[in-house]
Design brief:
The chain is built from six helices and no strands.
Length: 135
């Protein structure tokens, strides 16, 4: 199984568990899917890269080919490998993204109306520490 097949298998196990459960032989299925993705990516990379440019040096060609492969992967992977998650899959339990309900989470943008920022402001007022700079 190539890396596209392994990537698909991990993605489907996590985000498409119902669809994954219906696959009789996962190794064979994802090996075939990975090969199909690799072939489509290779073909699309050639199309996007186009012919060699006159006077193009090694690094210029390498950059053009790498950019073409990246664009091809961005087109093909969402269609074959990284399919959108199932609607009824439990996103709250599998998601590691912080939420405002998570007490360890602190917003990156200061919003004075946010309850967390209000709490921080109250704590700073309570401390009355002159060494602590004001926000």
């Amino acid at each position: 199984m190539n890396h596209y097949g392994a990537q698909a298998q991990r993605h489907w196990q996590t985000y498409l568990p119902q669809r994954y459960a219906t696959i009789e032989d996962p190794n064979s299925f994802f090996s075939t899917l990975g090969e199909q993705a690799a072939q489509q990516i290779e073909q699309r990379t050639r199309e996007l890269a186009g012919p060699d440019q006159p006077g193009e040096g090694y690094l210029g060609k390498l950059g053009r080919l790498n950019a073409a492969k990246q664009m091809a992967e961005e087109e093909i992977l969402p269609e074959l490998i990284l399919i959108d998650p199932e609607i009824d899959s439990p996103t709250d339990e599998t998601s590691s993204a912080p939420t405002t309900a998570d007490p360890a989470w602190t917003p990156l943008v200061e919003d004075p109306t946010d309850p967390w920022w209000q709490r921080v402001a109250e704590e700073e007022d309570d401390e009355d520490d002159p060494a602590t700079p004001a926000r």
